Amino acid sequence: MVSAAAQAGVVAACVVLFVPMGLAGWHLSRNKVLFFSGALFISLAVGVHLSPYLPSLPHLLAASFFLPHPGGTPSSAYSSASSSCVPFLHRVSWSDSAATGRTWAWPPSLASTCGFARLSRDEASLLLNGSWVMVAGDSQARLLVLALLRLLLDPAAAAAAEPDLFRRHSDYRATVPARGISVDFVWAPFESNLTRLFREDLRLAPRVPDVLVLGSGLWHMLHVTDAASYGDALASVTAAANSLRSPLPVPPPHMFWLGLPRLVNHMLNTEAKRAHMNVTMLRSYDREVDQRGLLRGNGGPCMLLDVGKLTQGCGQQCAADGMHYNGEVFDAVLHIMLNALVIESQQRI
């Protein structure tokens, strides 16, 4: 028989669950990413509320939502996944499969501790329900959009979208009407294109994207080949991104920076690329990204999607031409971003 204390706990938990969730649905209906994560956060709060009455829950919560102390023993104060798991998002392992070739996964221990997971089509659609996702950059950005469309759409619809998406030097727009999701790709191969996007296009728009992914550098490396100039251009992007965030009456976009891939010099398909796009130049360009205040770790607006680390892990067998990598790499990039969105949205509540 359920004790009176347990019954009272269940009633209180229902209040904790449904009242805030109703308020969240009212106030956060514009930002579905935030509402989805709010629901997860409130569910966790209910679990914590019930834990005195269900002895098995504390152990389950500790195993599923909190990281152990770095020394290997539990910390005296729990550290939530929303603050502790972000540094581990890129810690994926690669393996070979006879059926699919190279594939990736989070280590089981890390997946269970932080709750990282590949999202299904339904889960991704629920997370992005009603959201506007904008990806601006070069061919790498197109590959990320393709990975997103392959997740959100059925295979036939995703395949039908590819010719328009990969139309040379052009923008692209797609929608998922059932979920109210809009996906925009903006062709922006140079940093000046990104700065203009912030200072002109988005500033004049009646609404800003809920999720904004930016990336550039390959065209600059090939056509300008000057890391200091690239850094100066990144500083302008950073200032423009910060100026967009500051006056907004609504939460700013979730911003991500798409890092540069590992370059396999001997596979590059032109002499100019082999001459200018080498390992030394890549390292100098990566340093500029780290030093120009763009990334979250340096107080900047963008979380890094570390394509360089992921392409290094997958290896040159995943590279089609020494610069562009296969779909499995960008599937990993996409799921790192989606898992980061869940964590980041919880922090905004």
From TrEMBL:
Its main location: membrane. GO terms for biological process: xylan biosynthetic process. The keyword Transcription does not apply. One of its GO terms (molecular function) is acetyltransferase activity. The chain crosses the membrane at residues 6-26, 33-54. One of its GO terms (cellular component) is Golgi apparatus. Keywords: Membrane, Transmembrane, Transmembrane helix. It is found in: Membrane. It comes from the Eukaryota. This is Pmr5/Cas1p GDSL/SGNH-like acyl-esterase family protein. The gene is gb07335.
